[in-house]
Specification:
The chain has 328 residues and is α+β, with helices and mostly antiparallel strands. Helix content is 43%, strand content 25%. It is rod-shaped, with a radius of gyration of 57 Å. Bound molecules: zinc ion (ZN). The site of zinc ion has 5 residues, from loops.
Amino acid sequence: MKTASLSLPNPHKMTLLVLRDANQPVKQVSVSKPLVIAVPLVALLSISGLIISLQIQSSQTIGKLERQLESQSLRFEAIVTDKDAAIERLQNEVIALSGQSEEMMDRMERVTELETELQKFIDKYGDPEDKSGLTSLSWDEGETLGIGGEFIAVHENEIEQLAADTRDKFTEMSKLLDEMEQHVPVTLKKAKQTQYTISGTPTEWPTLSKRLTSNFGYRTDPFTGRASFHAGIDIAGKTGDPVYAAGAGKVILTDKDSSHGNYIIVEHPGGLQSWYLHLSKISVSAGDTVTKGERIGSLGNTGRSTGPHLHFEIVKQDKPIDPMPYLQ
Ligand SMILES: [Zn+2]
């Protein structure tokens, strides 16, 4: 089909002439006028509608995608912010931990020093025969102190280093604690023994008066006038004056006889005993534990005595010894 021409025999009709090849007859098609206008119009409208609807659809899809992307990127941002915050928090924790480990080391070092002091005290005042001793704990400052906490951690590597140092320090501390756990109870036991020995040694002057009327050793007996051995010291005083335990210990005997009068024997550590004779009153009983300087009775004039006085005696392994070197 090559060309078409129109003729107008009827005002409401349109005639379409279809010219084909030269040897073919002309074909005539009669079409109503409104139809000629309506068909392309409908086609145009439907195409436009299609385009518009496609446009709407695509814009909706794009909008949806945009919103999705936006929310996703917000989520990512939130996650990244969370991570940053977490890292910062961890870094601060590492720094804080490092500080704590420093402080703990200092404190442990002080405890170790105290233990060493205690050991020195025991060595000085304790049993001189017991020299098994404890090796005092040493602490190498250069090796383990003064690392972390002094720089402001700004780099990941630094934080890692700090964490590693702190971990090392905690390991070191744990080792030190193990040692202390072993040593401190032993040291404390020794300190207690030392304290017991110190407080148990009869060194306290046993009454108020300091007036010595008779020394330890050979003397002329006040009753017979003959040479005799005096097993203790005599301290003149007033009847009723307090009599004190010269050292901590256990009362092993309270008794009375014509020679000793009312008397008390206290047992102390190291095979020592202290004897208190001629008392007017006894304030303790056998089996009692007494502390150094505790009142145990009253000065008197009972037994073989010429006047109110305290006969004080120290017995070591069943033999009386001179009490003066003990008394302060
Ligand atoms: Zn005497």
